[in-house]
Amino acid sequence: MYVDSHCHLSFPELAGRIDEIRAAMVTARVGRALCICTTLEEFPQVHALATRYDNFWASAGVHPDSEGVREPSVAELVALAGRPRVVAIGETGLDYYRLNGRSVDDMAWQRERFRVHIRAAVATALPLVIHTRSASQDTLGILGEEGATATGGVFHCFTETEAVARAALDLGFYISFSGILTFRNAAELRDVARFVPLDRCLIETDSPYLAPAPHRGRTNNPSYVPFVAEQLAQLKQCTVHTIAEATSANFEHLFKRVAPISTGAQLHEKVD
Ligand SMILES: [Zn+2]
Ligand SMILES: [Zn+2]
Q1: How far is the CA of 91 from the centre of ligand 2 (A)?
Q2: Which ligand is located closest to the Cα atom of residue 205?
Q3: Percent of the chain surpassing pLDDT 90
Q4: pLDDT in tens, 116-128
Q5: What is the distance in A from the centroid of ligand 1 to the CA of 65?
Q6: In angstroms, what is the span from residue 67 Cα to ligand 1's centroid?
Q7: Residue 240's pLDDT band (boundaries 50, 70, 90)?
Q8: Residue 240 Cα, ligand 2 centroid: separation in angstroms?
Q9: Which residues pair with 201 in a beta bridge?
Q10: What is the pLDDT of residue 260?
Q11: Closest CA relative to residue 96, chosen from 118, 72, 120, 114
Q12: CA distance 26 to 45
């Protein structure tokens, strides 16, 4: 069984299709998914998915690209993290890709928001879901300054270099690969995936975006995560079964509140 470690099922492209998506997940043997939060305003919908379905979990956080939304405090994130079935803080991080005419200096608000998330993660001992784009040095620097090695987490939808991967691994973080790994023009990323030890790899869809080949360009959903696993298996020269097992074990190891299932029964009650 596969795990999709990062999806946005509350986004409009997918929110009305949950039954259909869940049926497709069963067919594709995708047993679990982590539903990622990008704004405080969105949290109730993300959280509702995780409380309604016992193979979905939720994160709590405000995406670096979310502008014109409510800014979280450490205390607010800590409170959300205490809700049932919340297993991670994020997604959070830095994104200097779309500056829209601003300078990196102008993005101090993003760096401050990122620090708030790390402090909440340290306070709750929950792992961080990191989004970083065109900002790897600041991302790694702030993680180090704020003591994020204590919590760990995952660099999701990884598109950075091997040097950045090595630095993230040195901080104790996992690396998650998305459908980008299957794209024809992603040869460098495939080299990075060869480098990252399998016991530190996760797989994800980041749906509704970035559908893997052969579905590239369509609306993505968690049932497509096996295509990422198949690509990773080719790179690691192992079976897709080995990838499914390893990435599932890594998911449980990182997001400790989802596992072990046998002793976590109280976490699986449908409560809200
Ligand atoms: Zn992201
Ligand atoms: Zn995302």
Answers
A1: 7
A2: 2
A3: 94
A4: 999 999 999 999 9
A5: 9
A6: 14
A7: very high
A8: 24
A9: 175
A10: 52
A11: 114
A12: 22
